[in-house]
Write a structure and sequence with these properties.
Blueprint lengths: L1 H4 L3 H13 L8 H10 L8
């Protein structure tokens, strides 16, 4: 996933966990926010 999204391994793990568990993800990082949008993961605090 980190190669596909051009993100670091810790970010990729964070994304993978949120995606597998169907949990919202909280972040202030712009690149991680963009990856969340591409993957269809819900951001914490969004409806």
């Amino acid at each position: 996933m980190s190669f596909t999204l051009d993100s670091s391994v810790p970010f990729a793990c964070y994304l993978e966990l949120a995606q597998r568990r169907h949990l919202p993800l909280a972040t202030l990082d712009r690149s991680l926010h963009a990856a969340v949008s591409r993957l269809g993961i819900t951001l914490f605090g969004e409806p």
